[in-house]
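User: Fold both of these, please.

Assistant: Here is the first one.
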Amino acid sequence: MMRYIRYAFLATLGILLVSVSLANRQMVTLSLLPEDLAHLLGVNFSLTLPLFLVVLGGIAAGVVIGFVWEWLREHKHRRTADVKHREVRKLEREVKSLKKKQNEGKDEVLAILDDAAA
């Protein structure tokens, strides 16, 4: 059921984006710097694109910047989780070796039963 809702949402979003794109096909000029500053610095870079590409590109750039920002912000949490994961694995190995020492000289079946009970 959720799959169909997701497909319906994506289809609606696609229709909306195509509609906005068709309604905003006018060409606009994007400049890197304001005209006066561009002449002063000698850098006059500009592009002529359809308006819908400018809008959708701005949205896409915002999403990418947000994801990168969040990924950088959560770095400390991922690092802490990694350290804890390594610590757990170390402790599991230590418990296994202690159980092995504890069960030395015992019958294998009794050792397995002791491990299962713990």
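And the second sequence with its predicted structure:
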Amino acid sequence: MNHIKWRSLLEILLVSTRLGLTSFGGPIAHIGYFHEEYVRRRKWLDERSYADLVALCQFLPGPASSQVGIGIGVIRGGVLGGIFAFIGFTLPSVIALILFAYMLKDLEFTDAGWIHGLKIVAVVVVAHAIMGMAQKLTPRLTGKSIALFALIAVLLSQTAFTQVGVILLSGLIGYFVFTTKQKETESIQTTVPVSRKLGLYCLILFAGLLMVLPILKGTFPASWISLFDSFYRSGSLVFGGGHVVLPLLEREFVPVGWLDKESFLAGYGATQAVPGPLFTFAAYIGAVIGGWQAGLLAAFAIFLPAFLLVLGALPFWQSMRLNSKIRGALTGVNAAVVGILLAAFYHPIWTSSILTSIDFAFAAVLFSMLAFWKLPSWVIVLVGAIGGWALALF
């Protein structure tokens, strides 16, 4: 591998690690952070390609924001780029949660002022991302109407099934309503350095593990097989992001006595306090059950389906995007994603973060720093944490 390739991979690792250290606020906020860093600042993807990648990952089960990050890494640097992007974004919170499992799981830190400041930062980042995406993805009245439909539906029925149904229906509407000109399709080409053969192997491996692991679990009594199966299945069958996987993990491990309710809730609080994907909660559970080795195994198992699905889908992504009918369906899905992001922006992000007029004023200052003064995201995170801590003193 030549020097330029390694330099590109190192850049992917460094950028994703910085995001892994500063991306607070959950999956919807992560999409905003990625948009700011990868699209606005570095221009690794254009607006349309990023929106289509987000739409693709919304279709796939698993942690959508992590899959978007993996996809960007794959597009930028191939399979190794995807691995580096995943490691950088995920490892900081995995390490933090394993340490919490050893030392801090019983501490009351969820009401700390700096945590509240970081929640306000999430409001700002998501608002900025939605504004930019809405301008690009819903220029016509039909798209705005689909976004409004998605917003209302998701707010009235806040389940993963509603979200998936809204995306499917919006795609169907877009398939029949939107038409894409040839020049538009020519301008959206994105190179994906992964062969269709490898993609097919990844999809086969994903399905094979889903079927074989329960058989192995029943045949061999090894605890690590049971652990791997539980986390792999949870990562394979969840739509809607990290918040949805938490109750599934509770049902997998608390009733059977692998860990008690108090330890589970302490870990949940720790997960809310650290940056990065919520799926890293698996690392905490694994560490409580079997030490840091089990923590790393749990994190690997719960994210493996997401990685296999992204690698499996991306090689077919470009040809689907160039088909005019599929392009229309993606246009409908993109409009729906704007509505879904708006719904998530209100609840839980806004409702859990903007509690007083002072919070709103602080959010306005942070938004101005990001949108008008063009300061880097890490500066906004730092100011948000310090400001939240200072506000808590009054």
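The mean pLDDT is 84.
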